F-box domain-containing protein
Amino acid sequence: MARMPTVDLPPIDDDEDVGPFTNSEEHVELPPISQLPDKILSPTDNEQAIKLPPIFQLPDEILMLIFEINAHESRGQMSHRISAVCKHWRTVALTCASLWVYLDYRRRDSIPTLLARSQQINGLDVYIGSHFIQPEECYNVLSQLTRIQALVVQLNVTSIDPVLNAVPLVSAPLLQRLTVEALPGSGPIPTLSGLAHLEAPKLRYLELKQCRINWDWRFIRSTSFTHFHIRCKEYNPPPSLNRLLDILQNSRQLELLVLTNAIPLSQTVGRIVSLPNLQHLTIAGRVMDCYSFLRQLNIPPNATLQLRCETIVTIAIFQNQILPLIHAQCQQYYLRSLTLTWSGWQSCKFTIAGYTKPSPAPSDHPRFKVALTVNDETADDKRKTDIIGAICSRIRFVLERLEVDCAWQESPGFWVCMRPWLGEVRELTMRVMPTGLAKALSEDAALVLETESPTPNPDTNASHFLLPKLETIHILGVDFPPDLDAFLFDLRFAQEVRERRGSVLNEVKIKQCKFVPADFKRKVWEFVEIVQWDGEGAIAVAEEEEEEEDAYSQMRGSMNEIMLFDSFAQHARR
């Protein structure tokens, strides 16, 4: 950057009385440096002052093009900051109306200025999301509805209706995106009455969340959507099945459909709606409502389906209602992701997500995710396993990655019951410390030693293990077990036996642990080659052995991960 020119003033004599500084009218301030005569600047300073970098000397038409591209790409508050590069850029930016089309009410003091700078250009992006906004403050912007291209309103439940009623919202010829979301709070559910007479022929992206929906509104009935996202309160009246199918019939280009608590009541109509461009479908509601709704849709095979249902689950209900629902949609697909969550004795929530074509690429392995939580300690583990088994026996998949989150996984019996579907699992993710898994692996290894010959063939005996192809265990956000010695003994014994029988557990990763015991480091050294940790819990280890210098103390990583590599596996590779 060029050096700022300096002004040489005559020196002041030491004996001269300059008097005290005063703000009186007799005091004369020096003019700004830009207003000083050129003769007080040396020729060298004048040359340096005009030698600016090339970026500051761009022609105005190039700058205007840069501003327009930036406004189109960023479409946000960050687009305004490009005008602060230098004084020349600022001057040109003030004449570029398209740079000021994004109006953010989190800085509502600048809204009148931004409206003036945008002149009469069309395509405004308006975001209203202040917790302290008053309805009258939105009048200036909402009165420009004919110029608005995207309108996002995210306010608390008591502010949405007054804001939308601040000005009549009737004609929005350019509106392409509309998002209204009621943030959590106390108060009546917004009715969105201000949108009742809205006409938006170009509307393609609609999101209405936690609001009361009137399915007969004109802009919902007569619009062709590409994104249709409705998330209602549970007591919001759902539409009739015919009404919803009419909306979808008009939206042949629909790419995303999300309906949460907005599924029509269970009924049957003699029509099928095809959605050839659908890429993602998420529906949540009662089992039979979802089932009857899915029967009316023709979904392309490469679409991703996410289904969340709530019901009272017994084996009979599961086999007679839930399984037909699953089977109807995925009999020609491979299941990629399945989530089951039990929140009580019989209350069940389950998710089916991610289908793919019948011939997935080798790198696109199917995924089977089991998330089970049981609050009742007397719940029957066998009953839950029977349900999982019923799914596994009805749907084709190769289970290679398994994620488990359940209180009853700590029982070794759970893993024994799951044995028939664990033969190909290579990666296991758990959200509790795998004491039950370690115990099951240890007992299984002892059984293998007892039942097999002293000199077994690794090629034939590896498959006899529980999880014979398991390579990696990820343990997320857990507390270490109180009986750490038993856990480490079981895990070490299982690995020793597996190594001798040709089935080696390569690594265990413990991430985001809540507490690391002080004696953990010295105990895992017996069978762990590398220890890396970080996190608040690991401080307990470091405080006890501050003076001990070793190679391991230099391997501390990212304060969020402990990685345990089995030394026996390392020797086996060598």
